[in-house]
Amino acid sequence: MDRADLIIHPKYIVPIVPRDQVLTEHSIVVRHGVISAIMPSPEARLLPADKHVDLPHQALMPGLINCHGHSAMTLLRGYADDYPLMTWLQNHIWPAESEFVSEAFVQDGTDLAMAELLQSGTTTFSDMYFYPDVTAARAERAGMRAQIAFPVMDIPTAWAADAKSYLAKGLALRDQYRHADRIEIAFGPHSNYTVSEPTLSRVATLAHELDAAIQIHLHETKHEVLMSVENIGERPIDQLSRIGLLGPRTQCVHMTALGDQDIDTIIANGAHVVHCPRSNMKLASGICPTQKLLDRGVNVALGTDGAASNNRLNMLSELQCAALLAKVGSEDATALSAMDALEMATLRGARALGYEQLIGSIEIGKRADLIAIDMSSAAMQPVHNVISQLVYATNGSEVTHSWVDGRLLLQDRTLTTIDVDVVGTRAAHWRDQLAQFSAL
């Protein structure tokens, strides 16, 4: 057997597949960024490796997958809180973005976002924001795995003047990254209320021709659905189904305002749902019926949304909120079990992004995207059930190590590819600029 690059010896392994399994006294062997063996620790310790890593207090699990966010909006964290969605967007966020969004803004905001993501256990993220070329470059530099959904709208912005420009720039970016190992470029039409039907139809055609993923905000509020019925005579999801935009590579974000007929449409088209519980709660947008969707076989993943509408990019917090919200929303304490929540943040997220064969579980042949979570603190004791503890007792600060493709990105809670001091200085600069703008 070839010499291993890395062998990790944790206290527990939570592989996700098989479901509900927790291994003890087992180790993970990594070669060329791939999980090559899962074996008893006494045997693994005898193998030659460039590095053996002992994690005597940690649970090792797949890296978390954040399926929806707007990374650069970390610079707007806390900028406009406690408003309903459309007031928040139209009166606060969109004016600030019009004034400040630039390559520098996106670079600094993305770096800040990735620092937070890695420190709280996320190894793969999906992003939808302006200057996606900058986001892709920063993700590649930091060593993270990312789906970059380039924005498509009919509204002019600093990045593009019209729908044709959005598509041309996005397609050029997709061509640039067509051979990239960790970066995939997807289509990101914002919503059916900011994108005209001809543009949505064009996206559907191009995505089908290229076998590309599509991510779209959909049924985020009851108001959005009613507005669509008033304006075009049909619900947003029905419009997307009719024009061919819904399919197995479509990621429908939010989906709080759902009737049974809408769920039927999701199932008929094989689309995925991305649930963003904290953002939806904060904006009072509604509750995605996650357990009902899962019961009917819909793949449901998790996302944080942007820090401007969540304030955290913490997927451990997100999966905890998802589990709790499902219970109170359905008045059923058995809804969305701890294992279901973990799957939504890992394997189901991988499935939604089209990465299921690569990541999302600890299995031989998959990429070594892994995180270690310290189980030794007082708040984590006693450990009756590892899976329950990961979902209900963590807050994100317990993440000690993170690897992507077997490359160490977080070691003993310290980032290895991002300088947090520089990130903090740049964030303070933008805070000051935004404060001056707000005072005008």
Largest sheet: 9 strands, mixed
Low-confidence stretches: none
Helix content: 40-55%
**Shape annotation:** globular
- Beta percentage is 15-25%
Radius of gyration: 21 Å
| Class by alpha and beta content | alpha/beta
Q: How many beta-strand elements?
A: 17
Q: Distance N terminus to C terminus? A: 67 Å
Output the number of helix runs: 17
Would you tell me the overall average pLDDT? 97
Main attributes?
440 residues, alpha/beta, nine-stranded mixed sheet, four-stranded parallel sheet, 17 helices
Folded structure, characterized:
The protein is an alpha/beta fold and about 450 residues long. The chain has helices spanning about 40-45, 85-100, 105-120, 130-140, 165-175, 195-210, 220-230, 235-245, 260-270, 275-280, 290-295, 305-310, 315-330, 340-345, 345-355, 385-390, 420-440; strands spanning about 5-15, 25, 25-30, 35-40, 50-60, 65, 120-125, 145-150, 185-190, 215-220, 250-255, 270-275, 300, 370-375, 400-405, 405-410, 415. The strands form three sheets. Strands 1, 2, 3, 4, 5, 14, 15, 16 and 17 form a nine-stranded mixed beta sheet that branches. The protein has a four-stranded parallel beta sheet with strand order 6-7-8-9, sandwiched between helices. The termini are far apart. The mean pLDDT is about 95.
Can I get a quick summary?
The chain has 440 residues and is of the alpha/beta class.
SSE blueprint:
Elements: E1 6-13, E2 23-24, E3 26-31, E4 34-40, H1 41-44, E5 52-62, E6 64-66, H2 85-100, H3 103-119, E7 122-127, H4 132-142, E8 145-152, H5 163-176, E9 183-189, H6 197-210, E10 214-218, H7 222-232, H8 236-243, E11 250-254, H9 260-269, E12 272-275, H10 277-282, H11 290-295, E13 300-302, H12 307-310, H13 315-330, H14 338-345, H15 347-353, E14 370-374, H16 386-392, E15 399-404, E16 407-411, E17 414-415, H17 420-439
Parallel strand pairs: 1-5, 6-7, 7-8, 8-9, 10-11, 11-12, 12-13
Antiparallel strand pairs: 1-2, 1-3, 3-4, 5-14, 14-15, 15-16, 16-17
